[in-house]
Design a protein that fits this description.
alpha+beta
């Protein structure tokens, strides 16, 4: 499930396709992603912050949507901080 734009992916694919796509975009932006004991960890490009995300997919619910929203917000904030040199 790679194309020419993706680096070699070292994490196990996330079972939710939307989350996996977010992970791939983060990987291309320089985030480090790994999985340990069912939890994915994303590390900011400047390695000053990390974010944990569940590996299992919770049935579609408001809680799951909130988790995805939190992930997107964290990525947006840390990318902005990186661009502004505030890592």
């Amino acid at each position: 499930m790679t194309n020419g734009d993706d680096r070699y992916v070292t994490w196990l694919p996330h079972p939710d396709p939307e989350v996996e796509q977010i992970f791939r975009e983060a990987d291309r932006a320089g985030y480090v992603i790994y999985r340990h004991k069912g939890v994915y960890t994303l590390v900011s490009p400047d390695v000053t912050e990390d974010f944990q995300f569940l590996g299992r997919v919770v049935p579609s619910s408001a809680a799951w949507r909130l988790m995805i929203t939190d992930l997107r917000r964290w990525l947006a904030r840390t990318a902005k901080d990186e661009a502004e040199g505030q890592g």
